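Minutes, project huddle
Topic: does the predicted pose make sense with NAP bound?
PN asked that the exact inputs be recorded in the minutes so nobody has to dig through chat later. Recorded below.
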Amino acid sequence: MKEEQGMYDILIVGGGPAGLTAAIYARRAGRTVLVLEGTGFGGQIASSHLVENYPAVPSVNGVEYSDALTAQAKALGAETRFGRVSAVRREEEGFILTAGKKEFEGRSLILATGAKPRRLGVEREEELVGRGISYCAVCDGAFFRDKNVAVVGGGDSALQAVLFLSGVAGHVTLIHRRGELRAQGADVEKAGVRGNVEFMLNSRVAELLGEEKLTGLMVEQGDGSRRELAVEGLFVEVGQEPDNAVFAPLAQLDEGGYFQAGEDCGTMTPGVFVAGDCRSKGLRQLTTAVADGSVAATAACRWLEGR
Ligand code: NAP
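Predicted holo structure (tokens), as shared on screen:
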């Protein structure tokens, strides 16, 4: 069923920092905009504990940042809807997106679909999600007050999770497969001086222990020895994966499934732009997501003018 609002100038898929920044720029250029979001406005930054590398903002809570961004886009007149896009088709006048039982029409598209947490890939992982296994420390950390927990991963998300959890849980063990962490040095140093944080490097989670819920981990260490860790929570922070397959007919994907785009965030289809973590790029940060959002919206407005 087609929505009654008719044709939007720009349909934005994804309500994270890239999509919402695109909405702000497009509204300020006088374009009608609908942002469709599948889960929660704010994107991944809403599950970040603290953002401390955004220029001129020394420290901001991830939820506060994403609430402020969403409010700014709405105040400027961007329309927002919950809906997961399951199909897209191109018509003479533009594009039609299907989300649930609804269809939305737009003259141009900005795809800002982000990325979702990668699974660790250990046996019984799915079965124990919500029973000890989580992909979001900020969302679920409070369930583990004063308990022992572990975090897997060596990137910024893992270190952010460790820093957040060390203020809630009793003890936090960071398990990382290599001897080196790729996270920002400042966060690694902060975690290193917390009294309740332990690093287990060159280690991997070999088994999840517990029947109804997680009670521990069997960790295989670099020398081949095994160590049992009694933990009630395991926070998996091993990176992200894109979820772009539905849009593949419009925008070329690289071997990892990320959109390929030019400097102006344009794709192989005129009128289709991509922004943020969903696109192939060297640095996925809040700064680069909002930069993409502004570039993609400006390019989309220019493209609309030229029609
Ligand atoms: P990431 O940087 O891709 O790091 C993923 C980590 O998980 C790596 O340390 C990787 O190990 C490890 N890993 C991957 N697959 C694994 C597996 N199957 N088993 C065990 N370990 C595995 O992902 P991220 O930390 O989620 O960050 C994603 C992007 O967001 C990055 O660009 C990051 O800088 C950015 N980010 C920024 C902030 C911030 O600015 N404050 C906060 C969060 C995220 P290896 O190191 O061995 O490859």
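Observations noted during the meeting:
- Residues 286-305 form the longest helix (20 residues).
- The mean pLDDT is 95.
No decisions taken; revisit at the next huddle.
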